Amino acid sequence: MSEFDEYIVHGEPGQKEKADAWQTAIGLQDVDGLKVSAYLLDTARQHIEGDISIDEARERIKAYYETKSGHDAVDEEGDKVSANIAKILSEPSFAFSLVGLTSIHRRIFEDVFKFAGQLRTVELSKKEWVLGGNASVSYQPAVDLREAIEYDLAREKEFDYSSHPISEIINHLSRFIADLWQIHPFREGNTRTTAVFLIKYLRSMGIPATNDMFKEHSWYFRNALVRASYKGLNISPTTEFVERFLRNVILGEKNELRNRDMLVGASLPKTMPQSITTSASKSQIDTLNCTLEELAVLKVIEDNPKITQTDIAKSIKKSASTVKRITSSLVEKGILIRRNGRRNGWWEILT
After folding, report:
1. pLDDT in tens, 181-217
2. What is the DSSP letter of 232?
């Protein structure tokens, strides 16, 4: 059990959202081997229970380290960054742009790095565990960072998520986020920034996503990005591991996430496909021939069959007319049916 599972399982809606944000924020520290202090956990609980605001929680953490002598620098970074991420994840605003990306880095590492929010001016090379501890991904040269980010974001904006089936969307999204990560725009904190940017991006599109994977498997996420970006002798970049991770995030599948499966030189199962498409989710919604918008609607209906179209629209951040079009399309496809009339009825998914 994680620190705040009690709130996620039994808490009020507001408590669940806060606990989820804190658990995700804390879990993301694993990508750099960071931990958080008991003081941070106690402060987070006070915020979850409504005793203090998120800004008060952040100020308490800041004051704690200003007055505490002989503290652990690892704890300090983990605590401050966790509080900053929890605040960002609690906000609905999101800018899909270079400014938005650098703003996320600046806000995550405020009072932690002097270069927070600044594109790096030095070249990077990092020996990776998943590459046997003796090789590094080739990152974007510092002189080309701005152009590379703007190019990737511009290409992503051209992709029409409403016209592709889920399997193609997962593959595309895996490639996009791996390419963005490979640029490595900042001196430190690239994986945590990429993860928060991805979570916010998914939410902005109304994609039904769970943050549990970032909470529990952030190191796997980083290693998967390495394998999607590294090219070496007899080794080609592959998004299969990022896809496995994202299928769990977006579709709720239970694909096993093991870091050792990605280790270069490890004996991988011969039956492992290049694109993970197997399903082990609690339902079979993801096996239907649906677009991303249709999947979002179905996920909401699965959780609450009596939900109204107005509430569906609020949940997936789409207009009421868009939801009406989507539900009509699902009915025409024989995937969805309305039982017992419009006023007192409910939705039934025909899987």
Report:
1. 999 999 999 999 999 999 999 988 887 666 678 888 9
2. B
Cα separation values, 97 from 151, 157, 166, 292, 347, Å: 10, 10, 24, 22, 37
> 48 and 11: one domain?
yes
Would you say residue 268 lies in a domain? no
Nearest residue to 176 (alpha-carbon basis) of 138, 148, 203, 137:
148
pTM, to two decimals: 0.82
The answer on 176 and 69 residing in a single domain is: no
- Among 73, 91, 109, the domain boundary falls at 91
Range of the domain at 339: 289-349
Alpha carbon of 298 to those of 165, 196, 290, 294, 301: distances in Å? 14, 25, 9, 6, 5
Tell me, what CATH number does 224's domain have? 1.10.3290.10
Locate 33 and state its tokens. 């081997």
- The token pair at 344 is 């007192």
**CA dihedral (189, 29, 106, 205) positive or negative:** positive
Q: Which residues contact 65 (CB under 8 A, 6 or more apart)?
A: 71, 76, 79, 80
